[in-house]
Amino acid sequence: MNKLYVVGIGPGEYEQMTIKAAETLKNCDTIIGYTVYVDLVKEHFPGKEFLTTPMTKEVDRCVMAFDEAMKGKTVAMICSGDAGVYGMTGLIYEIGERYPDVEVEVVTGVTAAIGGAGVLGAPLIHDFAVISLSDLLTPWEKIEKRLLNAAEADFCTVLYNPSSKKRKDYLQKACDLTMQYKSPETVCGIVANIGREGETVKVMTLKELRDTQVDMFTTVFIGNSQTKRIGDKMVTPRGYRNV
Amino acid sequence: MNKLYVVGIGPGEYEQMTIKAAETLKNCDTIIGYTVYVDLVKEHFPGKEFLTTPMTKEVDRCVMAFDEAMKGKTVAMICSGDAGVYGMTGLIYEIGERYPDVEVEVVTGVTAAIGGAGVLGAPLIHDFAVISLSDLLTPWEKIEKRLLNAAEADFCTVLYNPSSKKRKDYLQKACDLTMQYKSPETVCGIVANIGREGETVKVMTLKELRDTQVDMFTTVFIGNSQTKRIGDKMVTPRGYRNV
C-alpha cells in the first residue's frame, strides 16, 4: 500500500515534536511542505528528499504528495503545529478521494493554541474557542459572529492569523467586537515565534491588546472573566466556584 | 533553583508524547500524578520515584509536588493530554504563589481534541470551541450558554467530560441544545481511549449522537454546517468558499 503521512511538527522547536512525528519523518522517503517548515526540520532529517511549494499552493502541494506516494515512496506532508487545525489534513482527505490506492495516516502535533498557552502560563484551563481572523476563505461576517458569540459566552478565545499586510486592523476590530461583552481590563496575552528563535511573550489588558501591532507568526489569547495575572503569567482558574 | 515541570503526556501512547516531555521525565527524580496516568508512563521511566493521589485530590497533589521540589528534587507533575487544557497548570501557578523558590516550567502535549481529531480525520480544520460538560466547578447555566453560542455561531464543538455516573443524560441535553441551531444531520464523531488499548472511533449524525451512551474516556466532536463524511472519516473544509 502506498502511504502518505500528514505530520504536525509542533510549534517549531525539534524537541516539541512528538516521538511518533520524529520517527515518521526518520522512516519516510520524501518530506513535503511549505518552504518555511521544511527549512525548520531539514537539519534533523539528513538524506531525505525535500519538496516544497509556496504558501498559496496548498492544492498543488497535496496533489504532489499523492503523486509521490503513487510512485511507491513513503511520503510525509508536514505542517507547523498540528496538521488538523487550519492545516492540510482536510484537503488531503478531500483530494485523497481521487487516490484510493494511497493510505493516509495523521500524526498529531502541538498546535499554536497549546504551545502558546504553555509559554503564557495557563490561559486555556477552562472552555475556549479558536478563531482565525483570515477572511481569505471565510466571509468576515462569519468571523464577526463567532467573535461576538465567543465573547458573549465568556469563552477564552485564541486568535490565529491575527494580522497580515492586507489585514492590518483586524485585531483591532476583533478587540472592539469582544469589548461589546468583555471588560477592557480582561487579561490577554500574545506569543510570537513559539519555540523558535525570537520567541516573545507579553501579558496585557484587552484595551492594550487593541492597540498592539502583531504579525502573522503571533498567536493571541483573550482571557475569560476569571482569567488573572500571577506574576508575569496569564492564568485561568479551573471553574467558577472557589476551589 | 528548585524545579517543577508540569508535563502533558499526550493521549496515552508513549510515542504520542513530545520528545521534550520524554526527556523531562527521563531527567527528573520524582513523577507525580493521578494513579491512572502514572500507570501509563511507569514502564518507560524505570528507577523514578512515583507518587500518586486520587482524582479529586488535585490541590493535595500540587502541594505534594511543590513540597517534593522544596526538598531539592526535580519534580514532574504529569497530566494526560496537555496540562494546560482542563489540566493542572493553572492550579500549579495559583498554589505556586506560596512557593517563590520553586521555578515552574510547562511542557506541552497533544490534548484530546487534537489527538481525537487525528483519529476521526480532520474535524477541526476550521474555527472550533472546546467545552467541558462537567458541572463540578462550573454552573450548568454557563455550560448551556456556551453550547448555544457555539452552535449559533456554527463552530465545530469538542466536548470534554461528556458523561459520568452522576451525569448520564448530559450529552443528550447538549445535543438537544445544539439542535436549536444545527441540523440533526450534522456530522459528528466520538473517540474513546485515544492511542490506548481499546481505542474506538465512530462517525454519526447529531441525531444519532443524542442517543449514544459514552463514558468519561470519550471525546465528542460536533461538526459545523460544512463538515462531511469522506469514507469513514469526519472532515471539515478549510472555509466557506469553494477551493
Structure, explained:
- 2 copies of one chain form a homodimer.
- The first copy, chain A, is an alpha/beta fold.
- Chain A contains 8 helices and 13 strands.
- In chain A, the strands form 3 sheets. Chain A has a 5-stranded parallel sheet with strand order 3-2-4-1-5, sandwiched between helices. In chain A, strands 7-8-11-9-10 form a 5-stranded mixed sheet, sandwiched between helices.
- In chain A, a hairpin with a 7-residue loop joins β9 (187-192) and β10 (200-205).
- In chain A, α3 (58-70) packs across α4.
- Chain A is elongated.
- Chain A starts with a strand and ends in an 8-residue tail after the last strand.
- The model of chain A has no long low-confidence stretch (mean pLDDT 95).
- At the A-B interface, α1, α4, α5, β6 and β7 of A face α1, α4, α5, β6 and β7 of B.
- β7 (128-132) of chain A pairs antiparallel with β7 of chain B.
Mean pLDDT over the full residue set of chain A: 95
Q: Could you name the ranges of chain A where pLDDT drops below 50 across 5 or more consecutive residues?
A: none
Sheet-strand content of chain A, in percent, reads: 25-35%
Structural class call of chain A reads: alpha/beta
Helical segment count of chain A: 8
Radius of gyration of chain A: 19 Å
Helical content of chain A stands at: 25-40%
**Number of separate strands of chain A:** 13
Write out the strand line-up for the largest beta sheet of chain A, numbering strands in chain order.
3-2-4-1-5
Molecular shape of chain A: elongated
What's the short story on this structure?
With 243 residues, chain A is an alpha/beta fold.
